[in-house]
Amino acid sequence: MAGEKEIQALLDKQAIHEALYAYCRSVDRLDHALGHAVFHADSHADYGEGVYQGPGRGAIDTIIKQHDGLTSHSHQVSNVLIALDGDRAGSEAYMTGTMRMLRDGKEFQIFVRARYLDRWEKRDGRWGIVQRAVAYDHDEVREVIAMRGPHNSARDTSDPSYSFLQGFTL
């Protein structure tokens, strides 16, 4: 039977998982507040030279600004490993990002696979990222022919998911 320490570890790991999922939702729904909540105010993010290096919350603002020029985007995390040490943790999460853009009347898809390498701290009962580095595994851009459209998702809080989740605790 699990003791209090084991149960707390499960709760802490679940909170970190939820924060990683919230990060993906924030960039896909262009939700600044949700993304800012994933990072502590004094955090630092390194997405690579020429991509973004600076405050963690600034990464959200930069990514959302970049995504604003795209036609669609979808991010997922998987294979999440979390190592706990009290109110500190480290994690590795595999990321898949697909984004679409129009250029010269043609639609292109950007495909990125990378890993988020994060250091976390639990402050005032809330887990947040204090340091993020991104390790890129591969990426590509290719012209695509969409199978169907228009899609019924939205890149803001008018997305159907917001009304489905309204009134529930995330």
UniProtKB/TrEMBL annotation:
It comes from the Bacteria. SUPFAM superfamilies: NTF2-like. Residues 8-132 form the SnoaL-like domain. InterPro entries: NTF2-like_dom_sf, SnoaL-like. It holds the Pfam family SnoaL_4. This is Nuclear transport factor 2 family protein.
